[in-house]
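Researcher: Next sequence.
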Amino acid sequence: MPGKATHEEPPVNPSARIEALRLEDDGTYPNNGALPALHYRRAFALPPREPARVIERCFHANGWSNGWRDGVYDCHHYHSAAHEVLGCYAGTARVQLGGPQGSELYVSAGDVVVIPAGVAHKRLSASDDFRVVGCYAGGRDYDMNYGKASERPQADENIDRVPAPDSDPVYGKSGPLMQHWVRAR
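Model: Next structure:
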């Protein structure tokens, strides 16, 4: 209808492959034994123009905000005050979750990684054009922790207090995160 704004649905892939990764405390990084990290392969069919904006809109519509655009740090780090989602909009990378002995993921444009509070993450390698959108459940402020002994037990207390998200960052209230993170609800 002329003169009316239309709401475009994001190009979400309903058949994205979801991988759940349980990452336990390794003595240095708390990780999060209660909540698995999730890797959504090909969650988005991204347009050539403004792919980051498409991901941001989807994350924001599902209650994940306080975002940024960049790469992933090349050092192990974690957030004890917020759950994080990364949406890859360009390039490829190998990312490690869970610390030096953790799991490695290959991430490419259209992929999404949901990282529970406490889970260490690091970029191992990346193409020159690798970029992600990062957001936090409920728009929470995040902190930076690097696995130093002095960060705990405060980090453990923070992780225990982070509320469960109200919806999956890509698929909304009935998305896979809601089934995988059922114990946190």
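Model: The first strand starts at residue 17 and ends at 23. The helical segments are 51-61, 154-161, 176-180.
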